[in-house]
Description:
By secondary structure, the protein is of the alpha/beta class.
Amino acid sequence: xxxxxxxxxxxxxxxxxxxxxxxxxxxxxxxxxxxxxxxxxxxxxxxxxxxxxxxxxxxxxxxxxxxxxxxxxxxxxxxxxxxxxxxxxxxxxxxxxxxxxxxxxxxxxxxxxxxxxxxxxxxxxxxxxxxxxxxxxxxxxxxxxxxxxxxxxxxxxxxxxxxxxxxxxxxxxxxxxxxxxxxxxxxxxxxxxxx
Length: 195
Ligand code: GDP
């Protein structure tokens, strides 16, 4: 999709604030600092539309980005940030869980995982959770420019093994710096949203 028009619609704290226009929604999750804002900005060809968080864990609400009046990206709160309290963490978890399990418009989840490392326990929990609810998942390994291309396949294998990756899902190696994987991410989104 060639994106020209993006609207930051809202930061929603409660369900009552979610959009009502029934467009398909693609949720994006990942631990803080994984590169979620950078991915969103790359997908919509903006330098800093989605907030690139200088402070990890800052995004604590669902952010809805309306793209070309065709779909929403829904940026869900970053998880796994050690410095927030247990109570806060539980609250984020609840927002994400309620959204993903009750929202009819969600067509899939983009789960971002740092491509340089093994998935964290939180990454695994997120994937297991999505699979439990039959949500189609695109796993995006981020920051792949930091790894030599000869190691990409090996890294993909490590991540898939740790996640017990389901072959119905897709995996993309991505770099916000070089744009690698961007087209594949868009293809998956368009397929999920039937656009
Ligand atoms: P968020 O907290 O998940 O939204 O993460 P950000 O998008 O703010 O990125 C966190 C940090 O990682 C920032 O310093 C980004 O510049 C950096 N970063 C994100 N994506 C990439 C990437 O693909 N390659 C490299 N080299 N750095 C990245």
